[in-house]
User: What shape does this take?
Amino acid sequence: MSNQEQPVIDLLVVDDAGERRVQVQLGETMLTSLQDANVAVGSVCGGNMSCGTCHIYVEADSVDFERVRSPEETALLEDSRHFRRGQSRLACQVEVTAALAAARIVVAPDE
Ligand code: FES
Assistant: This one.
């Protein structure tokens, strides 16, 4: 691996096309990673945390979202009728870390 290559992890994702594994780069936002992998996730505001269309569920045992979500992110997500307190995130606000290799990322239904 050259110095310019970023480490990647396999991520289990689910969208309208079904469940599959995609390779994503550590350190990227989840939104960018999903879009680069052709996962069908919305991004009306372009990642500025104002639209809520990048809503995903992070299904993982080891993440305490009440501590990692900002109050602003939580407020936007709580407006969704698909909000899940323990799993909902905005993909534009999630950094891809190695811990997510054990997670299942599900694109939330449209509003
Ligand atoms: Fe709009 Fe994430 S892309 S809130």
Observations:
- Residues 3-107 form a domain with the Ubiquitin-like (UB roll) fold (CATH 3.10.20.30).
- DSSP finds three helices and five strands in the chain.
